[in-house]
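Our preliminary data section would be incomplete without showing what the modeling component actually yields. Below, a chain of 286 amino acids is followed by its predicted structure, encoded as tokens that our downstream tools consume directly.
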Amino acid sequence: MAKNRRGRGGPETVEETVDGGVAQLRPDRDRPRGFTLLIDGAPQSHVDLDDPAYLDFAYQRRLGHVVDLAAPSGKPLQVVHLGGGALTMARYVAATRPRSTQQVVEIDAPLVQLVRRVLPLESGWRIRVRGGDARAGLAKIPDGWADLVIADVFSGARTPAHLTSAEFVGEVRRALRPGGWYAANLADGPPLRFLRGQIATVHTIFPELCLTAEPAVLRGKRFGNAILLAADGQLPVADLTRRAATDPHAGRVEHGRALLDFTGGAAAVTDATAVASPPPPPEVFD
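Predicted structure:
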């Protein structure tokens, strides 16, 4: 059921029930055509229809840094997005790298319909949105097709278990061209057991890794997002470090021996042992 709530002289909040819960597209008071997507009250992403290159959420800016450094400026990319949300990152790629070809896999069909109706994509953008499970959708990507795979999948604020295993990451690598990158948005809090296990898992498939997050998250002081970037070749660690350090929510980049030490000997996860990421504590969204 859809509900519209009119703001003071501005756009309305649009509220609808989708598969994942109650979705709201709430107007941004500071940006005339900006909207925040919330699911059951939890902020998911932000879109500015006037400026799709604007990224409001810190974790999405960190993904934006990855997109910026994945190829020379302006060069088109072939990108797979696992998890669509408000299609924020697909819009960013389209705006900053015209003529890019993108495939989005999003399981929540009513959410996709809501987003495309209220926050329409620009004509000419090469973005194909597929319905269905992220891992099943990834299996349909041809070998070596993608320059970049971005995984940002949450169900009830948790990443499903079958998207955390070494078998899943192996499927990601199959879909990537040689030299392509895998970026995953991971959410965890103290004692960071899930995050440490994910680093160990991805390292069984990709030799090069780096992790970007706010220092308090990396120290296990609070729950938050971390972006894990992986490749079979060298990563631009110095450039990522500079961008993270100058972000409005400054981040730290870990890589090399320090990152492997950070795992604390955590075991890699397989399909047989995988569990969903931990739920965020209630106060995260207060």
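The first strand starts at residue 3 and ends at 6. The mean pLDDT is 95. Preliminary results of this kind motivate Aim 1 of the renewal.
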